[in-house]
Input
Amino acid sequence: QVQLAESGGGLVQAGASLKLSCAASGRTDIMAWFRQAPGKVREFVAAINWSGSSIYGTDGVKERFTISRDNAENRIYLQIISLQTEDTAVYYCAARGTAVTVFARTASQYRFWGQGTQVTVSS
Output
């Protein structure tokens, strides 16, 4: 069982930057960030493996979002620059499982989830 805990969300103005953090209770290979805006489905943002290779959800996300990890700390991060009001959402950290090494973009393929951290961007 892997427990995940996100932090770093908050209320920011458009154009600002933010860095989200997710702490895992143990080693897990594929970790990801998803986000869910009010009334919308949960959206894949980015994923990273143990070696640091990453994939992103859309070209637009890739331009402003950077996923990274610190294996010594069992943490992943999501750096967001030039925040827009459309980025307002609850951001979730997820992990596929301790023995899974294949990337995935669908929420149902992730076994472990954090409780989420709210990011609100004001205009």
